[in-house]
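Question (not urgent): is this output format expected?
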Amino acid sequence: MAVNKTKLKKQIFDIIQIGDKSNLLSRAFDIFIVIVILSNISVMFLQTYDQLEPYYGILSVIEWVTTGIFCVEYILRIWTADFLYPTCTRGKAIGKFLISYDGVVDLLTIIPVFFLSGFVAFRMLRVVRIFHLFRINSRYDSFNVIKIVLVRKSRQIISSMFIIFILMMASSLCMYSTEHAAQPGVFSNAFSGIWWAVSTVLTVGYGDIYPITLLGKCMAIVIAFMGVLLVAIPTGIISAGFVEQYQNNANEESKVVDVDEIGELLVDDVSKFCGRTILQATEEYGVNIYMVLRDNMSILPTGDLKIQTGDILIVKSKFLEKRHGSSLS
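Got this back:
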C-alpha cells in the first residue's frame, strides 16, 4: 500500500513538474495551468469595467474556480515536495518549497481572493498572479537564456543603474538651483526635479515640467545627451551577454572532450539528479552530460530530457574523482 502511494505521488509529481517536455501529461498540465492563469488574470481585468457589472457574478464564479485550481496545485506541490528535494527529509523539503520562489508566488496567488474586501494591500497582491506566468515560462529554454544572462551580468547592470540614479539626483539638484527663482511653484525643492530628471534621463520627455531659463535649457541639453549615453550602457551589457551565452551554447555542442576526463554516474532514488531535466542538472550542478544510458539504449541528452532512476550518465565535472583508473562521481 505504501509502495502504491509512493508511486502515485511520484506520478503526480512528474505531471505537475513544470517544463518537463518529455512527459505528455506534464505538458498538457502546463498548458492547462497557463489557460487557468490567463482566465484568472482576464477576470481580474474585466472586473474593473463598470459596464460589465451585470456579469460580475459569472466573473466571480470563474475567479473562485480558478483559485480553487491554484489551491489544489499548491497542496499537491506541498505533498510532493520530497521528490523536488530528494536529499532532504520530508519536513525540510516542505519548508524549502514554502520559502522558495515558486512556493511564495503560489501562496500569494491564493491569498488575495479571500481578502478581496479587506485591506488594499491584499487586493494589490492579485497582481502577483501575473508572476505565475513567469514561473511557468522560466522552466523553458528561451526564458532560461534570459535568466542566465541577467544573473551573470547582474553586477554590471546594477552598477550602470546606480550611475543613472546618481545622474538623476544630480540633475534634479542642478535644475532646482537654476530654475527655483524663475519657477518656485514647479521646482520648489531639490527633490521636485526628480520627475523631470527621470523623464529626461530616460529619454521619455513628457514636457509637463521643463526649464525656462537660458542656463536651465543649456543644462537640460547636456543632461539629455548624458541620459542617452548612460541608458544605452545596460542595453549594451545585456546584448553582449546574449551573444556570449549563445556562443557558449554553440561551443558546448561542438566541444570534443578527452576521454580521460569523462566519468559514469549511476542515478538512484536518492540522487540529486533524479527527476531533473538535463538542462536543470547542467545549470544547478555544473556538470556537462554527454550521453544517457537507459535500458540498453544510448540517448542524446537534449535539454528537456528527464533523468530517471537507473540511468547512467556520461558526464564531465570538476567534482569527479578518479577510482581504480576510471572516472566516477
